[in-house]
Records
---
Amino acid sequence: MSRKSQRRRRFAERAFRAVATGALVFAAGMFLLLCAGIAALGAEAFLRHEARLEIALDAAVLGVSAQASAAELGTADFRAAVRRAVAEAAAPAADTVSEIELNALISPGAEFALADALSRNSGLLGRSITIDAPLSDAADRYLKESPDARGYARLSAAQQDVIAALKAKGRLSRAFNADFFASGDSSYPELAGVAAGFVGSMFSVGVAILIALPLGVATAVFLEEFAPKNALVDFLEININNLAAVPSIIFGLLGLVVFIIALGMPRSAPIVGGLVLALMTLPTIIIVTRSSLQALPSSLKEGALALGASKLDAVLNPLLPAAAPGIATGVIIGVARALGETAPLILIGMVAFVATPPLNPLEPSSALPVLVYLWAESPETAFAEKTAGAIILLLVLLIVLNGLAAAIRRRANVYRR
Amino acid sequence: MRGALFLICAAALTAGCTEPSESVRIVGSSTVYPFSRTVAERTAAKFHQRSPIVEMTGTGGGIQQFCRGAGEIDIANASRPIKDSEIALCQANGVEAIGFRIGYDGIVVAAAPSNPVKALTRAHIYRALAKDLPRQGGFEPNPNRLWSDVDPALPAVEIEVHGPPPTSGTRDAFVELALEPGARAIPELAALEESDPAQFKARAGALREDGRWIDEGENDNAIIQLIRSSPTPIGVFGYSYFDQNRGVVAGVAIDGERASIDTIADGRYPLARSLYFYVDARRARPALANYVLEFMSEAALGPAGYLTEKGVVPLPAADLDAERKKALAFHERASALQVEPRP
């Protein structure tokens, strides 16, 4: 070999390394950019501002009689009571503010809390209670944004005075937003939470695992160990590989036609979502299980057969346990993909406003990625931080799942050596 | 199938497997969706019932599902009145649709505050966005590149307009309220409407495809993000989005009127449309009637109502009263049909 050819080959190697490093840096940079942007905004979703208000549940202010029945309490004007409490707390700054402007400062969450308290204990009528009322999205954004970058300042000067007065009197606090984790979706950003989406996602993924794991592993074992080698089986194999590459919305369409229209299963229910996601993850599980079975040393199976085990015995004892780490990795990666899917859920009605978290897989529900989609489309600008918060939650779940897969893989490698 | 479902229910080890038809199910327009979900939430809080489920399917898709009468759909939200063909579909499937008019929504043409285009007429909009314009007896592709090509009085800024796609109710309304009247201002097209109305509609609704009109998917927030930081692009979207983004984008006056609650309510602002929802009367039951009643209540649509705050422009008092009477009648019908369950 001449000097020249050696130099050329060295150069080719250096170029290849440079390109590969560049690709890595690019991918990592993009990921960091995404994380930094989302983390800064999303962190705000976990906190919100609250005002400590002493609210008088005066029958005259609420517009009901002193001995109001439950039905009459339903029509009570809780807004007026809240408004009055704010006006008192922020006096005298609140004197020049219109009712509409005062309404726009405190979240309707305060009214819901009052209605709830009164429906549970009608004896509260005529007394006064102290609550930490969440501020409205506009007031909350106003307090969260730095004074020189208030692009979204939608508070009037009079409203800003009220907020300043509440702050001066020590009524305002920045608290952990428990509603973000405990509540379902809401049309008010300060009250919206991920609970309905999270529970819906867990139910869907649970159903998907229950169905796809046994079916997928059994299919893989059959194809690998029992099926005859003929054209039909080859054809099946090709189609399973094709299925893994089918766009997920097609599975949604299948779910709509088969499960909802033909079998009459309920719309928007996680059970249908789970079935659709199971169909979607099935090919992944089959392919991964087969390749982990192929990766086992042939001595394992031959030894078992030589000792007199039947084919099924050999599969159940040495083969499947030895392949289990590989299978588990595949299942987790399949599930992680299913967890992030929105497209198939649109058609089966899970892209919906659901305020009450479902109690079982038959009740209407949404899913975590669906919340990201719905919130990103909402007109209220405060939903931007909620969207980022939901993305963070989704990313954390995915990182945990993928970490689990990596840990299982590492343990398996220790065994094999 | 029911049996199988209950088995799964039992397997899930959960208390109180409810009949799925218990919650009110709503589908339809993405414009009405933010209002609908607010009422859903308020109804649930006020009447201590499960919150209705609201899906965002678009007006056309929603009415299709509603009229097919199969999927346990109670209400279809719509950003346009129901079409005759859809009424026929409803009747064929035995769906008794009762319509309610909610209020108005304006379509806003807006841009970044730094954009020099501050006022347009509908004729300007048509001349800037039409795919073909009449010339010497025939039609030729729209040659206008700058707003000043449309009218020398306008600033010399590139024409670039982002708006809703053809599947959207907002697009239908934009075509009907802005482009068709704009086309009528051109004599050749006005003559065409006389001789061949279908051809006129096709011409008026055809937007240019050379990158000066850009379909943006059903995401109005994306349009606002696109236009807010650059002085060239102009966006077309719903009034509630404009209302929530005041200070970030500025409205362009249309025919001399700016979009506001007042100009939309008294009809001066030309790009305003009514919003509706349709209820299946066969499915009348207290939970559904409560939602309808709550939607039409003073607390929602009154001058300081929560929907008014969210950007719905209320109907004139007399019209609103008529809608309320319908809601009350529906509520009575629901109570008569069914005895209220004991709490």
Note: Chain B touches chain A through 55 residues (CB under 8 Å).
---
Amino acid sequence: MDRTGTIAFVPPRYGDEVIGGAEAVIREVAHGLAARGWSVEILTTCARDHFTWANEYPPGESVTPDGVVLRRFPTVLDTPRAERARYEQAIASGWPLTLSDQQRWMNDDLRVPELFHWLLDRSASYRAIVFAPYLFWTTFAGAQVDPARTILMPCLHDEPYAQLEIFHPLFSGARGLWFLSEPEHALAQRLFELPGNQEVVGSGIETPDAYDVEGFRKRYGIDGRFLLYAGRREGAKGWERMLDAFARAVRRHGLPFSLVTMGVGDVHPPADMVDRVIDLGFLPAGERDDAFAAADGYVQPSALESFSRTVMEAWLAGTLVIANGASEVVRWHCERSGAGLTYDDDLELEQCLLFLADAPEAAAALAAKGREYVLTNYRPDAVLDRIESTLAEWTENPSGAG
Amino acid sequence: MVSPYPPARDGIAAYAVQAVAGLRAAGHDVEVLSPGPSAAHHHLDLAGPRGALALARRARHYDRVVIQFHPDVFFPVPCSGGERAAIASALTVAFRAARDLEVRVHEMDYSLGRGSSPAAVALRMMWRAVPRVVVHTEAERASFHEAFGVPLARVALADHGADFMPHTTADRETARASFGIGPDELTFLSIGFIQPHKGFDRAIRAFAANGLGHRGCRLDVVGSVRLEEPGFLAHLSDLERLADSTPGVRLHTGYISDEAFDRWIVAADLLVLPYRHIWSSGVLERAALYERPVIVTRVGGLEAQAAGHGGATVVDTDADLADAMRVAADEALGTAAAERDDDWPFDPARVDRDAVMTEVRARAAASRGGVPPARDTGAADGRQARDAREASVPLRRLGPLSVPAPVSGRPGASILKSVVRRLTAWEVDPIVHQVNRLQQAVIEATERLGNLPKE
């Protein structure tokens, strides 16, 4: 395989402490390709937090231990974002916005002019420029620079933003599209006119060598049975509604579970649940794996998932997944694997939790199918094989050197 | 006394007759004028400007006039702004004609007094013509002053239950036996006129959500439709469906005597007053009369009214209501909720996701109430049940609308949010209730349509 030429990846954020599915996918692919001998650069912002977009990392160039070049550019946030807030309401309500309004919405937020100009000056030097996810200014603006070299990894959800007309050229003009799942691909086909190059590449999930359940419990002082949620604790991820439903189920049925969570965002447990909701904050990868293995069940309350790596991590650890059925992708995983339960309202979530509480052996038997599903479909090597295959087919080294 | 009056079965009539009894017992000579033929001494159609002016002619002949005020007695429903202004002006004349006037307010839409429309101006004039306005809670008193500009010195507070007398001498055992209630059945009661704002459907859903019927509890919903209007009859129909599909719930419709009304209260272990909006509650007073605990929603002046009674639990949301009923059941039954159907019929060696999901959905449907749950048997009727469920999925995924908790990590912001929440609750909460009712109704309608036999 011809692995010459540099592949640039452009996520809005990058860093060990950055929590986000799209960011994790980009990271995994970028470093995976580097490990296979590709020249890889990551072009990103100095931001860590996707609400404030404050410049927390220093700008400039550095090199990661595995040889990936990391270039950070400062975000600019010099508008009050009041106009954006108004447009957000309109978009959420389904009110039509003119193209001009959609543009104003996009631009009344973070912008990264230095990144844009970096691409403007040097895009021709890259073999491919991979942008993800579709929704952010970095992708929207950056992908306009050199569509012929652009590969979009949209991480698309069925959400009001996806209906905006401004995203049509982004999808139709890219050199190629990488999708994480078949439902995401189908959604994109429904919403956009797509280019010829499209591939469902999936996302690779590393299999831990071993899990240290007892050690994890000891280190974090966790006794008894617990449910796990990993990710951002925010309304858009379904955290608050899930927390309310969990609290009600505990009160009604005396469920034996605590709710352990790791990630970022305020937790805000109800007063009578303070002792049952345990926030571990940000955990390093190994500790995360142990948490998945120690949990009785993993709850995925987000309706906006384009892949859901955490669901895969839970299955790898042999843990039953209970997921919001509103996420077409996660529902598809659960149905295809036969290893996850889905709920469509709070009462169904309650019954799923009761099943887990009362029939742990049957729950474990279901979860075991999940591990097989991940190992069959989402081994990192298989995902990288698919990605490399598309790179070979869709792109060529701009310098022509072999 | 100007008031609806028995034998009309009406909360105000029941209230008025007890006030009349109290006044007469104190030695006053009391005559009653009711808006329709009744046990009152006089009756007169009080609706419209003509009715108000007729009242003015009568009022001047009495030393003291007490009006039990409900707007529907004087203002037609619906009422245009012009009509409202005309009637308010005529009532101003009537109020000024009385030598000594007291108006006891049972319900009033305070928003009508705000603004500069002719109707608002006329209503403010009308209320300012009353030397003594009596309300039942401090919240109503403040609203009255703010909306109509009536000086606080002229707005008095009255104990809603001050004149209430017991109508039954039955003890709990006798009362329960008379209704066929077993001695060990924990009995929740929602009683009163059946109309949407009374929210009896909320009580049934909360009962269903906790599966209380399976724990040996019962919920009796007792009442009659006050007005044979399509909206009220449709609500009755909703209640019938809910009751039919919720184990342990019994709906008793029809007029009942004051004695039977009180006997139900005596028979009950706990009253559930899940009102969506109301200013004060006679049922709450009658529950207090018999020392029955109540669960009551935080609307109108009910919180203040309930504060005077021990054994009242005040709740905000449907979820809170369900929790309060469950807690009451746990305490009464001496079991900590753990009693549930914990038998999941799955062999771990052969467990299948689809079978688990079918069972999960059937159990959730049973908790939800409304449309009878059905397990997918694989046969045609099973597929139909599955189709009906699938049809409502987009609606159920929306989840109930709820008001965000007034919490914040920023210093002082939680207090500010709490203040804003209190100030806007009167406007926001009815919208939240209505949206959730609408969602629930559409879910049920969708599932019922899906359950109809296919041609």
Note: The mean pLDDT of chain B is 84.
